[in-house]
Amino acid sequence: MMLAEQLQMETRNLCLAEKALLGSFLKENHLLHDTIILPEHFAEGRHRLLMQLMKKIHSLSRAVDAITLALDCDPEHYGGLSYVQELLSYANPVRFEDYEEIVLEQWRNGRNETF
């Protein structure tokens, strides 16, 4: 596999892992308390924003869902309410730790340039 193809595959995998991680947080809010993931660990800008919003809402002991996110920030800043629903389709809380590790590994390796 050529380097460009490998980088493209890693970027796609990282994007999928970020979506699955965020979707898992939406599905199981308690995971926000358990994670060591910070907004800066995400490569995609809207994912960093969503993580920041989720952490903020969760710290106020409020449920984190599409509505509370929309009440806290204009949904157009992170792709709209339909994007939040899309994230839920990637959720798999059972695999949460796997997704978390993928995101952290890419961040540690400096491969999470914004896409």
TrEMBL record:
Residues 17-105 form the DNA helicase DnaB-like N-terminal domain. This is DnaB-like helicase N-terminal domain-containing protein. Gene3D superfamilies: DNAb Helicase, Chain A. The lineage of its organism: Bacteria, Bacillati, Bacillota, Bacilli, Bacillales. It holds the Pfam family DnaB. InterPro entries: DNA_heli_DnaB-like_N_sf, DNA_helicase_DnaB-like_N, DNA_helicase_N/primase_C. The keyword DNA-binding applies. Keywords: DNA replication, DNA-binding.
